[in-house]
């Protein structure tokens, strides 16, 4: 069974975090070179920081051009202004956007400070559609199997929506806030359907995620482990490393 599943995905098993980041950067580099005005779906969190460092280096040395690239991020906390240090807009500016030659107007995240969340979710779905969908979607994975902020649930979600974060996600993300009580309870996230419509997906995970990655890739496909749906994606690259 293990081998059958591995035939459907490209699995890159690396030793170190640096090697994982380099392998992911190669996949992004190929994508950007082949389609310089393509749409990249991006993620935040600890896992992709090394990848973003490498993309910034490649841009700096003239190997990669972001001037026509468009980006859509997976998610954003509700209630945080874009300039809040823990907002995902702030994260993206810090780790990628300010370091490459991408026009700010080409970068998109759900607006967590929107007055009307339903209207904001609709706007974001329409935007992704207008851009022609996502060419390459980057994903990390939560300890509970979430992708984006699509938490374990009774069904797989569709488009962008407002979700209540689970206690395990709040605890996992508390490390970036002064205190767990400051982690917002809600977030806006791209839905599972939109993620699955990406023409190519790359899932990045370090050794600390070994157990949930196993469950997601080789266990039953269930909305209780949202990432398990990736097993049926036709163009999935899994890039993992042993190191935590
Ligand atoms: C972040 C996101 C999340 C993270 C996941 C893993 O935009 O969509 O699903 O990818 O929580 O986070 P890290 O990389 O911090 O372990």
Structural class: alpha/beta
**Distinct compounds present:** fructose -6-phosphate
Sheet bearing the most strands, described? Answer: 7 strands, parallel
Q: Rg from C-alpha positions?
A: 17 Å
- Taken as a percent bin, the fraction of beta residues is 15-25%
Question: How far from one another are the termini?
Answer: 27 Å
Please tally the β strands and state the result.
10
Q: In which order are the strands of the major sheet placed?
A: 1-10-9-6-2-3-5
Along the chain, the helix and strand elements come as: HEHEHEEHEHEEHEHEHE
Number of helices: 8
Stretches where pLDDT is under 50 for at least 5 consecutive residues are none
Shape: globular
Mean pLDDT: 96
Helix content: 25-40%
Considering the chains and any ligands shown, give keywords for the structure.
alpha/beta; 7-stranded parallel β-sheet; globular; 10 strands; 18% strand; 8 helices; binds fructose -6-phosphate; 244 residues
What is the strand and helix layout of this fold?
Blueprint: H1 2-8, E1 9-14, H2 17-34, E2 39-42, H3 49-60, E3 70-73, E4 75-77, H4 88-95, E5 107-108, H5 117-130, E6 136-139, E7 161-164, H6 167-173, E8 186-189, H7 192-196, E9 200-205, H8 210-218, E10 236-241
Parallel strand pairs: 1-10, 2-3, 2-6, 3-5, 6-9, 9-10
Antiparallel strand pairs: 4-8, 7-8
Helix pairs in contact: 2-3
Bound molecules: fructose -6-phosphate (F6R).
Residues 43-47, 74-75, 140-142, 146-148 line the site of fructose -6-phosphate.
């Amino acid at each position: 069974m293990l081998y059958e599943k591995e035939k459907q995905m490209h699995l890159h098993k690396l030793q170190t975090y640096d090697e994982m980041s380099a392998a992911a950067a190669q996949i992004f580099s190929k994508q950007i070179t082949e389609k310089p005005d393509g749409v990249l779906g991006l993620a935040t969190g600890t896992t992709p920081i090394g990848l973003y460092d490498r993309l910034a280096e490649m841009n700096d040395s003239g190997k990669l051009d972001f001037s026509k690239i468009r980006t859509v991020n997976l998610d954003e906390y509700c209630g945080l202004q874009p300039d809040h240090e823990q907002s995902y807009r702030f994260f993206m500016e810090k780790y990628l956007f300010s370091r490459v030659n991408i026009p700010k107007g080409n970068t998109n995240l759900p607006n967590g400070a929107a007055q009307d969340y339903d209207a904001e979710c609709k706007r974001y779905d329409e935007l992704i559609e207008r851009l022609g969908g996502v060419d390459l979607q980057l994903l990390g994975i939560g300890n509970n199997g979430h992708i984006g902020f699509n938490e374990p649930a009774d069904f797989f979600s569709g488009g962008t929506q407002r979700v209540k974060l689970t206690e395990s996600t709040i605890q996992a993300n508390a490390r970036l806030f002064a205190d767990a009580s400051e982690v917002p309870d809600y977030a806006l996230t791209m839905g599972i359907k939109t993620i699955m419509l990406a023409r190519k997906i790359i899932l990045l995970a370090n050794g600390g995620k070994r157990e949930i990655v196993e469950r997601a890739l080789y266990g039953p496909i269930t909305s209780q482990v949202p990432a398990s749906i990736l097993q049926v994606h036709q163009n999935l690259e899994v890039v993992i490393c042993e190191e935590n």
